[in-house]
Amino acid sequence: MAATAATSVAQTLPIWFDVAVMAVNGLLGAAVARSRSTPVFGTLFAAILVGLGGGMVRDMLLGLEPAAISNWPYIPAVLIGGLVGALLFGRVLKRQSHFALIQGITLGFLVTIGAQKALDYQAPVISAILLGVVTASVGGVLADVTTGYAATIARQGHWIATALVAGSTAFVLVSMWLGFWPAVIVAVLITALLRFISQVRDWPSARWPGEPARGPEEGGAAAARG
Amino acid sequence: MAATAATSVAQTLPIWFDVAVMAVNGLLGAAVARSRSTPVFGTLFAAILVGLGGGMVRDMLLGLEPAAISNWPYIPAVLIGGLVGALLFGRVLKRQSHFALIQGITLGFLVTIGAQKALDYQAPVISAILLGVVTASVGGVLADVTTGYAATIARQGHWIATALVAGSTAFVLVSMWLGFWPAVIVAVLITALLRFISQVRDWPSARWPGEPARGPEEGGAAAARG
Amino acid sequence: MAATAATSVAQTLPIWFDVAVMAVNGLLGAAVARSRSTPVFGTLFAAILVGLGGGMVRDMLLGLEPAAISNWPYIPAVLIGGLVGALLFGRVLKRQSHFALIQGITLGFLVTIGAQKALDYQAPVISAILLGVVTASVGGVLADVTTGYAATIARQGHWIATALVAGSTAFVLVSMWLGFWPAVIVAVLITALLRFISQVRDWPSARWPGEPARGPEEGGAAAARG
Fold it and tell me: Environment class of residue C14 by beta-carbon count within 10 Å: exposed (0-12), middle (13-18) or buried (19+)?
């Protein structure tokens, strides 16, 4: 995947792991899409967007051909993930706290995969942080927008954007000081815990000073309507 | 267009045909945009998105500079198509079955153009199928989303996604077994017929088992609102 | 920024100017996002999209790695701009005519930056005009769509699309006849004046013949709902 630029083979997650994380993200995306009454192919389309969209945009922003196009396992893996997510959506979405935990871990790995690839290709530190966030967020944004919703990341709700920014920043800083593996552990822990705890404790998104409080559920479609 | 990668000149549709197909797609997109009361420049913007968006995204996903940017005829052709579509929108949209047939043929050719270019650039088979679908669908998705609608492809409605997936899969398989021209014929026929018949017979999108039936017209903006 | 392709150093705006223009655009975008009750990180996300999205898409359409990724100053500058815009949004949006003037000047420079880079990389004239418009418009489109609104550029409203098309066309034509600096001046003047005057005089978007007139404010979310 990063053949021309990786300085050390040990410093990248194996490609099968990359594929598995994207398939799980596609699974979660398909479950959400199906809960919005999306038909069969629209749901699989959402799985592709959620699972592969972030990595594709990251690669295009690095001036590369997206790995998910040039390596065949990504698309079938995400389609299988999407199928599972659509068929079991009731179970996947049943307990919000479980969903938040699994999503948090998945997003944590996506953040590390994205930021690491950017560092491999000599992107500046601040760009690597942004590309970690992009890798973990763009897929969901594309799926939200395509199905007619405001992006979750831009709405009042529980912490997603905060978790991604904290996780990506932590990954890049720790990887410069302590190396790759400690950075992976720290970034995944931070991202997953912030996502999970904000859901369980019902923490709202950070608001600007003076902004009236709003319930997390009011944001999206309501904002789109008013 | 595919100078560095095409193995055989006979195996690509001529560039003027490519341009013509995209102009027709821009015409159809402008007609739909105008029926949504989009002002003049917004309508032409929609024509550009619908006509050129799919091919541009396909080329970026292949790591190439989009053909529609490096070759000048695409943009003026699509703008002329968009102008015609906007001025004659009443006639273009008058009979849904005619619209579905013309759109189906156009999408069928876009699928073959997209999948063939991906194969020319040695993309894996599954990626070529996806890029055929991308070439024919992304333009409409961008225009829907930009004008505040959920993407047609992700909604309850008549068969578009199904037609594109079937057409693109057929193109890639037939082109490996029987060569380019039979594949073009089969893919265009399948895409156009599925699109047309689903409209005329009022077939709804494939639903997940246990999903309540919905009229095709209820999906889009309604889903976005509730 | 255009090291491999620029034929003459004098013919490009300096990179710090490029960065400053994008930071101001991010500031305006964050002010609008905050007025739509977007939480903290969503607002900064909007600043990144509005400030950098147009240039990133332009660079990807030229087959280049986006300048805002490979050069570190862009992202922090836009984040600082976004922070200022979010905190002072009341003041930024207080007088619509002032907002329109500042936005018009910013968009005028973005048009020239975008079209000039396209010309530097030997894009055809019509593609350079389109890429000028893309550079100045895509950021706002992405932010609108992500926050659940129809794109301003595709709605009934005051002149934005018209101003961008006129400014970009003027830049490319004047730069071919009279050189770079006169083209910058003409393009910025045309874009800013059309944007400003259309706001002050309350000119609606150009409508297709026979289209019923609509107040500028009715377009967006209303169109998305009906």
Answer: exposed
